[in-house]
Amino acid sequence: MKTLVVFYSKTGITAETAKLMKKQAGDHSLDVVNIKENKKVSPSGYDRVYIGSGVYGGSMPMELAQFVQKNASELKEKKLIVFIHALGSEEKYQKIAAKIMSPLGRKNYEVFYLGGKAELSKQNFFIRALMKKLAKAKNLDMEYPNTISQSEIQALLKTI
Q1: Between 27 and 132, the higher pLDDT residue
Q2: pTM for the whole thing?
Q3: Which parts of the chain are beta strand (E)?
């Protein structure tokens, strides 16, 4: 089964997951594309498409939304899997995925919430303040909050 992984990574966490997916595939046909570097990627010729990113301001990035919208007719015929990295969206991740997938008019896709992590020293003041509040509420490390779920990452990798 020919597979495409399209991802957006702001801090490298989603890129790490995409690399794990490529490694898991081994000799199987799996192409990994960073949408920031290749906005013209097409799902044509693929049987299965993974779409992944972090959550920014309660949504997945516009680049991925544009990819889905532009390729909606082709994506309707593919097996679709969405994977999301985020620190505080576990209650909302299904809605976040549904929002980006809405141009397809279908709900039969899988969604994996993988958790997230952040290095607060690399964030701007506003994001740092939000993350510290979230870290405190969830009893996480205040400088390096981390909710990555290795079991969910393994579950995602098993789908390859």
Answers
A1: 132
A2: 0.91
A3: 3-7, 30-34, 48-54, 79-85, 110-113
